Amino acid sequence: MVLSGADKTNVKGLFSKIGGQAEDYGAETLERMFAAYPQTKTYFPHFDLGKGSAQVKGHGKKVAAALVEAANNIDDIAGALSKLSDLHAQKLRVDPVNFKLLGQCFLVVVASRNPSLLTPEVHASLDKFLCAVGTVLTAKYR
Amino acid sequence: MVHWSAEEKQLISSVWGKVNVEECGAEALARLLIVYPWTQRFFDNFGNLSSPTAIIGNPKVRAHGKKVLTSFGEAIKNLENLKATYSKLSELHCDKLHVDPENFRLLGDILIIVLAVHFGKDFTPACQAAWQKMVRVVAHALAHKYH
């Protein structure tokens, strides 16, 4: 799966419009993921996952920052996320299926906050981008 | 047997009550064909699917989308008995249509995004959770008679 020129334009455009709210998007993505897919909570036994949790907000900010970084370096996502990829392979070892679940929730956040931004074309590009990020983060697993 | 809490049933039916089945169905199917283009393999006789614009404007896509989402309505009326409700449809999708059940999961996820587009903040995390469960259970019921 390859990101076309149009995909890259769509993704960069979307993230530029989301701008400073990326942190909020990250936090809400996690909140939705924990609600819709309770098994994802198993990776956070050390977190308070209650509503408004500062830990979830903080972690959402990190997740969002990584997505922004990937979008800003969309021609070399593997390079941009190399250290994160190492971390996931060596330490976090989040099962690969979960990246799809996170991606679905991020799409829902974008859709619910910015319905007019998520045209079918942008939806397709963003879905591809999120898949690419997941692939990079699991690339060194074995 | 799947257990549905009163809250889940309420979240599902309150959203459903506001859904325009024709519009949402058309949009969900169109997005499926656009976001996951390999799903077009089932629709060779639908005519022009050559671009997102063509897909969105395609009357067969609209009609079929409406049909598919109308069927969801049946599921919502029969949440306690989905396997029986979808028994014949499951056989049809296996024996005649030869549809990989993975496609039901893809369509379910797309439907959730369409609902999020339409309902915005009202599509709360709790709402999404109930609907993700619903589409997962529908997909499972549709796959149940596969052999």
From TrEMBL, chain A:
The keyword Ubl conjugation does not apply. Keywords: Heme, Iron, Metal-binding, Oxygen transport, Transport. This is HBA protein. Belongs to the globin family. The gene is Hbaa. The keyword Transport applies. It comes from Pachyramphus minor. It holds the Pfam family Globin. Involved in oxygen transport from the lung to the various peripheral tissues. GO terms for molecular function: haptoglobin binding; heme binding; iron ion binding; organic acid binding; oxygen binding; oxygen carrier activity; peroxidase activity. Residues 2-142 form the Globin domain. One of its GO terms (cellular component) is blood microparticle. Gene3D superfamilies: Globins (1.10.490.10). PROSITE patterns: GLOBIN. InterPro entries: Globin (IPR000971), Globin-like_sf (IPR009050), Globin/Proto (IPR012292), Hemoglobin_a-typ (IPR002338), Hemoglobin_oxygen_transport (IPR050056), Hemoglobin_pi (IPR002339). One of its GO terms (biological process) is hydrogen peroxide catabolic process. It comes from the Eukaryota.
UniProtKB/TrEMBL annotation, chain B:
PROSITE patterns: GLOBIN. Residues 3-147 form the Globin domain. One of its GO terms (biological process) is hydrogen peroxide catabolic process. SUPFAM superfamilies: Globin-like (SSF46458). GO terms for cellular component: blood microparticle; haptoglobin-hemoglobin complex; hemoglobin complex. It holds the Pfam family Globin. Keywords: Heme, Iron, Metal-binding, Oxygen transport, Transport. InterPro entries: Globin, Globin-like_sf, Globin/Proto, Hemoglobin_b, Hemoglobin_oxygen_transport. Gene3D superfamilies: Globins. The keyword Translocase does not apply. One of its GO terms (molecular function) is peroxidase activity. Heterotetramer of two alpha chains and two beta chains. Involved in oxygen transport from the lung to the various peripheral tissues. Belongs to the globin family. This is Hemoglobin subunit beta. It comes from Pachyramphus minor. The lineage of its organism: Eukaryota, Metazoa, Chordata, Craniata, Vertebrata.
